[in-house]
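Technical appendix A lists one of the benchmark inputs used to test multi-chain prediction within the project. The record comprises three sequence entries:
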Amino acid sequence: MARLRSLEELERLREEILKGRDPSRPFIAVNTRSACGLAAGSEEVAEGLREEMEKRGVEGKVELRRTGCNGFCQMEPVVTVYPSEVFYVNVKPEDVPELVEGMEKGKVVERLLFQDPLTGQRIERAPDLPFYRHQRKILLHLNGRIDPTRIEDYLAEGGYRALARALFQMSPEQVLEEVKKSGLRGRGGGGFPTGRKWETTRNAPGEPKYVIVNCDEGDPGAFMDRSLMEGNPHSVLEGLIIGAYAIGSHQGYIYVREEYPLAVQNVSIALEQAREHGLLGEDILGSGFDFDVEIHRGAGAFVSGESSALMTAIEGRVGEPRPKYIHTAVKGIHDKPSCLNNVETWANVPLIILNGAEWFRSLGTPGSPGTKIFSLVGKVNYTGLVEVPMGMTLRDIIFKVGGGIREGKRFKAVQTGGPSGGVIPEQHLDTPVDFDELTRLGSMMGSGGMIVMDEDTCMVDVARFYIHFLLEESCGKCIPCREGLRVLDRILTDLCAGKGREGDLRLLEEITEVMSKASLCALGTTAVNPVLSTMRYFRSEYEAHLRGECPARVCKALTAYHINPDRCQGCLLCLRNCPSGAIRGEREVVHVIEQERCTRCGICYATCPFGAVEKLSPPVVPEARYGVRVKKEGRK
Amino acid sequence: MQYRCVSCGNVWEGREWRSACPRCGEAVTGVPHPTPKPEDPEKLIQFLLSLQREKGWLPREVLQETSRRLGVPLARVYQVATFYKAFSLAPRGRNVIRVCMGTSCQVRGSQMILERISNLLGISPGETTPDLQFTLETVNCLGCCAIGPVMMVNEKYFGNLDVSQVAKILEAHR
Amino acid sequence: MEIDGRVVRAREGETVLQAARRAGVEIPTLCYDEELEPYGACRICMVEVERGGRTRTVASCCYPAEEGLKVRTDTPELRSLRKTLLELASLTGGPEKEGSRFWRMVREYGADPSRLLSRVGGREGECILCGLCVRTCASVTQDGVLAFAGRGVERSVALFPEKTEYCRVCGHCSKVCPTGKIPPEGPAGAFPSVYERAKPLSKSSI
């Protein structure tokens, strides 16, 4: 493969690739280029498809394409038949022969289609799924369609056209202006205006200048960066090169967290292929612009995702944050101007250059233009990655795109922004998703994690979880964060264990005040958000815990399991499933839970078909009576 | 470009993206195997990551050697080796199990999975079995939140886990 | 710029703390040493700065002096902040050692070390992790007998087995230590070896 040395050569290659492809020729896409696809067993399905297609002599007529994820993760392994976009879900290797046969005969295999849990309806095509219907995919558009390890796929879809335009038809200043005009704001959490950051870096004195991709995505519950990097790394790379051109940088870094080995792999391949094609390295596309990229792997530290810490890690030192009174855009890696942006931010850049700032502003809200990818997880019916225009309300995202709360339960809160964010209760569900709106509510957009919670979630436990996470991830350098988290962790753990003391709530408020004012970096200052927001909207739950009650019936120390003798039908089901052997009973005799043996695992509660198991809080259980005959009633 | 099989460790030279290791035929993908240039102090973390992966842990001599080759003060090598969760200064098992304890996985029962593994192997998180077969660790989110609970054994992912599957998965790795 | 109402001339490249000290204004510090790069870990030196109508609380040891800055070093809020910070530091800084710089400051600000300690139970290791010993040793020996190991609440100063023979017992670490943990005889008795932190093999059988 000879390096491309001009815009014309790039376009000629693109033409060649397109000529060799028939858009009406079907191809089957299986998600084996992403971690969750593999975790669900997509590799076995892909192998099965390959063998079956070979057996039937179909492999010449239909292409088997390995792709990244389409975002509907719980349905993996997913097999999509293009161009019709027939969407098969939860496919197992045993299903393969029927699937291939159906494809040969032009028939759809009904039982493998997605079945809407709310209507029972089977839906054939991906765009008709309620999960996808309300999304607006501009960034995730190619995920699930292209093989990220084949640059030809990306080129066939118009890839690197934006880069060529920037290099040959725009000056660096014009590129910068376009990004500024677009109003793009950082998608990693801070929401800082990207154009302004680029400008600061560009104008800062000192050479060399660096550009960095932050793929340290450490927020529990967030995986959009992983999906982009695994499924369409070229989109990020293209944005990075354009940004480097605008800023005047010739060296870039891609920082990928160590827990994402597949992303490291797919990005490495993308870099290699880009270099082969002259799209990266010296004299890119013959334009005279040099730029290359190095991958730097993280080593298991959430705090190293903070921009100054990340740069320190790239220098080979311990990834601790530095005081940021002088922006890293001015003094970053080796005290040189360094522009760090999140994966999703970079992926927006080629689209802005290709379609213009005006187009970008037409999406989203005036304060937050464009789209945002959220990882919608938790107690919703449809979980996965969703890309929606900014400004869509939380209610629409959760109920329209997410299909509402699972098992018909009641919505309680949605947590956004990861450990730096807060919970948002029902009364604010009609808030449009927007950087400033979410901050106003005491949360933040963060990287895009959106965890939906229902009536069975304990808000004190939520705060405890996040504080404990931060306690383990704090670098420990500064007193307010390290010791402050120690205090918060102790108090919240005690509250959930029924050991809360008087004055605890005031202490929580005092310590969070100090942390938010005095911490060295944003990990410490924003660590207070999970605590403050849950206290703001669910203070009664905190007070209940002080009295020894967990209203959500989650905290084990405060919840006891009890079988209601009026409802028990003596069916032995819970007894057999109890892992601790804590239930006594016989057929048609009321079962009794022996409290000393009960570990409160919840299995009996989940198993009983009569709803006879109750969760009591405070954990005061009526006296056990053995040998009582059941009251017969009609089955539910 | 060199590729390394994540299953058997075989390294081979290739121009193309491979989907199967030429030695063990595992249908898991090879990993580009970059060797950092020696005498590059900036590459300390990357260098240690490669060593950790190769040896399973970082013995004292390896840290001293690293300090020498990269020209990095020994104190900094230790600082880095103890700051990051990926590194171990004590021998680790042949198989490293990482159970995801992120929010989404917790809600779906990752605690039960962890307890099951703990009971089967007789070790707590952070510990290694005396026969050096398994090390058990927890991770704060692997990023596979919609198919939780999730765990990784070495570099293979196991999602949609049920407690009943754990024993079989462990046995298969012995 | 203005510090506590007084006009002060700062030099190019100075921090607020340096400018204040030269003007005779006392700002308390724990982890600062004028021979070393500012570290910014103790947060005791935090001051209020006002610029263009916006007020922030910043660490004066790191914040660059600017034209027209208005600084306040001793407000009731700052005193309260320092008091709580000292109580937080006491979680690992005890037991109290008479005459040490840290404990003198604790008394001066009326901090009550037992308040948080009784609620949380700390790990009294006589060390507030200010890093002065580590940084001083690194600058004196060019390499360092002492260094930080671990992170978060597991962070601690550790000794390097290979390096202890290089310790010349110069006494610098003992002099800068604010809690009095390091005796004049040197750090060897005060800190554990870095290998005592590694996770042991499990003693249980399968």
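The first strand of chain C starts at residue 2 and ends at 3. Chain C touches chain B through 25 residues (CB under 8 Å). Comparable benchmark entries are summarised in Table A2.
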